[in-house]
């Protein structure tokens, strides 16, 4: 498989998870432990794609603190060329969550103000324009200001450069509304898709028509462990697939699983695979990621993914037969 040159622009920050040792007691000191790791939609996907052998360059805002060093180390460990937009007097963005012992969220604090300081001109310097010229794919998330996202989508369109996007959240994905027709693949969950369409889908196979009506040319819509919908506009037609992932008994951490699904799908898409095969690849990578703690597999390789694809039960086509058994 020929490897692609990918320019990733967006969030690369610190995720802090506070795991409570017992059910949360409001207004009291709760025993527990902290876990700290690098995260961010574009960064998670970029690390996965780099570990699969693609040549990845990361451009992300960062502060001048120890958290920035942690992000830089994570990028280096994944084999990514790191080109930070550094603000020495600012803190690197972070997301801090308090979780019940069963993983349910008690509360969270997102300190992402630095992302709002990035104007379009900061992304369109001569150095970054050269990166765009050399890239086979532009990968972004929704963390930067709407004006910057719109400008980057316009540049990608002018250069006929495929643009893939990680939605991040319902509140942020709507920043792409003016540019949906310029996106090749938008990876989102059902809540994020509904934020774009204005209503939830009655069935997973309704997402294609609803999102296409909004101007989107291609996308992925996940629903936790439920069916995953994918569609893409081709020169003469629109291809689509809705697959039901096989059950995964050993779920350790679902954080990053959606980014992993998008990564696997894009890996197949870049190789020219069919929509169904690319989606199956994404499901396999999501399962690999959910079976370990953390938003990415540190040991991910093309060989590990190939083995997972070989041993994974085949995803079922949606809708399932009346018996509930795969067709």
UniProtKB/TrEMBL annotation:
Keywords: Kinase, Metal-binding, Transferase. One of its GO terms (molecular function) is kinase activity. It comes from the Bacteria. The keyword Cell wall biogenesis/degradation does not apply. CDD domains: YeiC_kinase_like. It holds the Pfam family PfkB. This is Carbohydrate kinase. It comes from Hoeflea alexandrii.
């Amino acid at each position: 498989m020929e490897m692609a040159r990918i320019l990733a622009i967006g969030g690369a920050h610190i995720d802090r998870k506070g795991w409570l040792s017992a059910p949360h007691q409001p207004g009291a000191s709760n025993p527990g432990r902290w876990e700290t790791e690098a995260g961010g939609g574009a960064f998670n996907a970029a690390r996965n794609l780099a570990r699969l052998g693609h040549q990845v360059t990361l451009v992300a805002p960062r502060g001048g603190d120890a958290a920035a060093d942690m992000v830089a180390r994570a990028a280096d460990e994944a084999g990514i060329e790191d080109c930070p937009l550094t603000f020495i007097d600012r803190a690197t963005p972070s997301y801090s969550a308090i979780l019940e012992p069963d993983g349910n969220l008690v509360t969270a604090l997102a300190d992402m103000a630095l992302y709002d300081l990035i104007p379009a001109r900061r992304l369109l310097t001569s150095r970054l324009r050269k990166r765009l010229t050399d890239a086979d794919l532009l990968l972004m998330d929704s963390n930067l200001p709407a004006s910057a996202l719109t400008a980057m989508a316009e540049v990608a369109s002018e250069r006929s450069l495929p643009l893939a996007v990680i939605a991040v959240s319902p509140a942020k994905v709507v920043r792409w509304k003016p540019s949906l027709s310029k996106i090749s693949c938008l990876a989102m969950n059902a809540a994020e898709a509904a934020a774009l369409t204005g209503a939830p889908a009655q069935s997973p196979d309704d997402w294609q028509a609803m999102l296409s009506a909004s101007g989107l040319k291609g996308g992925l819509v996940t629903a936790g462990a439920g069916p995953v919908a994918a569609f893409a506009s081709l020169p003469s037609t629109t291809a689509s697939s809705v697959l039901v992932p096989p059950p995964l008994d050993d779920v350790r951490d679902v954080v990053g699983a959606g980014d992993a699904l998008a990564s696997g799908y894009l890996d197949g898409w870049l190789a020219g695979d069919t929509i169904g095969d690319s989606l199956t690849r994404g499901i396999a990578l999501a399962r690999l990621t959910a079976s370990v703690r953390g938003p990415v597999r540190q040991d991910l390789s093309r060989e590990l993914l190939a083995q997972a694809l070989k041993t994974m039960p085949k995803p079922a086509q949606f809708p399932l037969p009346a018996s509930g058994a795969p067709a």
